[in-house]
Design goal:
The chain has a single domain (14-73), classed as Alpha-Beta Plaits. The mean pLDDT is 95. The longest helix has 12 residues, at 14-25. A four-stranded antiparallel beta sheet has the order 2-3-1-4. The protein is globular. Helix 1 (14-25) crosses helix 2. By secondary structure, it is an alpha+beta fold. The two termini are 18 Å apart. The protein is built from two helices and four strands, in the order E-H-E-E-H-E.
Amino acid sequence: MTSAAYQVTGMTCEHCVRAVSSELKNLDGVREVTVELVPGGPSLVTVASDSPLPAASIEAALDEAGGYRLGQRA
């Protein structure tokens, strides 16, 4: 199992947290998603998965969740 943390921009509330978590959990191999919400700034999203996930998969899930954007990897 591997874990990766990402800074995600555009998240402002608990609805954002649920949307992002739901889309990321739909990716193959994802076991757990945790979010430290920072309204007005980049939130910290940690993804635990069976193997490393391609950045393109993370970006696509964030876009599907509502147009959130991947910042620098934390």
